[in-house]
Amino acid sequence: MSEMTKEMRVETANESRKEKWKTLDLAYIGMFVALMAVCSWINIPTTVPFTLQTFAVFATVAILGMKRGTIAVLVYIILGAVGVPVFAGFSGGFGTLLGTTGGYIIGFLFTALISGGIIKAFGKKIWVMAAAMVLGLVACYAFGTVWFIYVYTSTKSAVGIMTALSWCVIPFIIPDLCKIALAILLERRVGRFVH
Question: CB neighbours of 76 closer than 8 A, spacing ≥ 6?
Answer without folding.
Answer: 33, 36, 37, 86, 108
